[in-house]
Amino acid sequence: MMETQSKVVEEAVFTGGKVVEIKHLKKSFNDRVVLKDVNLDLHDRENLAVLGRSGSGKSVLIKCMVGLLKADAGEIQVLGYNVTSLSAAKLNELRLQVGFSFQGSALYDSMTVRQNLEFPLKRNLGIYDRAQLEELVIKALKDVGLEHTIDQRPDELSGGMKKRIGIARTLILKPKIMLYDEPTSGLDPQTSEEINELILQVRERYNTASIIITHDVSCARQVSDRVIALIEGESKLEGTFEELRATNDTNLKHFFNY
């Protein structure tokens, strides 16, 4: 399995430092149009925040990016692969390189932290050697500051700790891109700030590019190099956080309290 993963990396074609290119993406559910016209680029090692209100289609966007949802129209290039035309086998190969940090952490309550982190190593990489599993699990937990939780279960952890463990389980496969879905949702301000700092640390330690889906202005300010505002299903405004705040655009008044 490790040889297969290396081959996938070699096959990927990067253009101008871009690891994601999305053009005119559209997605509807029956008569409800969620994404009308979304365009974005993500560059190598960039943190891009997609800022939008609840129900604006932010989560649908990143699910389309990894083929969890099928786009109705548009182009999606991720790590050089045309997502809309990939076979199931190729999608699985691509997903080994894209880490998805779910809003609810998506941990298995019946498993310990150790077992939760071992699961993707066994399923995706075919690693069963006890010493190798231990080494990889401990490193991932150290990188999120929770090595001491290794034998605990998710119901023994706080909301912030669950977020960190969820991120660790994603990082254990060493993805090239991280997708964070509302990483600070439901957290108090101090814990939110700690998660934001962790997102920055992940980039430094793993050299990842990241898309951070959020409606939290503090999160977007702290973690982003660039921000795209998703408004009524369209990517209408783009720039640094300070540039968007300085526009005084009425579409952003909900976030910046104009």
Layout of secondary structure:
Layout: H1 2-11, E1 18-29, E2 32-43, E3 47-51, H2 58-65, E4 73-78, E5 81-82, H3 88-95, E6 98-101, H4 113-125, H5 130-143, H6 159-171, E7 177-181, H7 189-206, E8 209-214, H8 217-223, E9 226-231, E10 234-239, H9 241-246, H10 253-256
Parallel strand pairs: 3-8, 3-9, 6-7, 7-8
Antiparallel strand pairs: 1-2, 1-4, 4-5, 9-10
Helix pairs in contact: 4-5, 4-6, 5-6, 6-7, 7-8
List the keywords.
four-stranded antiparallel sheet, 10 helices, 2 domains, six-stranded mixed sheet, 258 residues, globular, 39% helix, Rossmann fold, alpha/beta
Structure description:
The protein is an alpha/beta fold and 258 residues long. The chain has two domains: 2-97 and 175-256, 3-Layer(aba) Sandwich (Rossmann fold), CATH 3.40.50.300; 112-171, no CATH class. The protein is 39% helix and 25% strand. It contains ten helices and ten strands. The chain has helices at 2-11, 58-65, 88-95, 113-125, 130-143, 159-171, 189-206, 217-223, 241-246, 253-256; strands spanning 18-29, 32-43, 47-51, 73-78, 81-82, 98-101, 177-181, 209-214, 226-231, 234-239. The strands form two sheets. It has a six-stranded mixed β-sheet, sandwiched between helices. It has a four-stranded antiparallel β-sheet with strand order 2-1-4-5, with helices on one face. β7 (177-181), α7 (189-206) and β8 (209-214) form a beta-alpha-beta unit. The longest helix has 18 residues, at 189-206. Residues 1-16 have low confidence and may be disordered.
